[in-house]
Amino acid sequence: MTFEEKMTRLGEITEKLEKDNPSLNESLDLYKEGVALCADCKKELEEAKLTVKNMDGEKTDE
């Protein structure tokens, strides 16, 4: 799943939790999925930040 797809799914989860009034079990399942997606997105963003930082470091070394 791409970063963009994860963000879209997070939006769907948020909307479902806010508007659909899911059962407690469904809410917990959605919450768990959302937490996992958030962790994945955070990891990807940190990796992208490191990549950019390394690229900037390469530019200043030239």
Note the gap between the termini: 36 Å
Question: What is the count of β-strands?
Answer: 0
Instruction: Give the mean pLDDT.
Output: 93
- Percent of residues in beta strands? under 5%
User: Percentage of helical residues?
Assistant: over 70%
**Rg from alpha-carbon coordinates:** 17 Å
Gross morphology: elongated
Tell me the major beta sheet: none
- Helical segment count: 2
- Low-pLDDT parts are none
Find the structural class using helix and strand composition: mainly alpha
Secondary-structure element order, as H and E?
HH
Walk me through the structure:
This protein has 62 residues and is mainly α. Helices cover 89% and strands 0% of the residues. It is built from 2 helices and no strands. The protein is elongated, with a radius of gyration of 17 Å.
Task: Write a brief structural summary.
With 62 residues, this protein is mostly helical. The chain is 89% helix and 0% strand. The protein starts with a helix and ends with a helix.
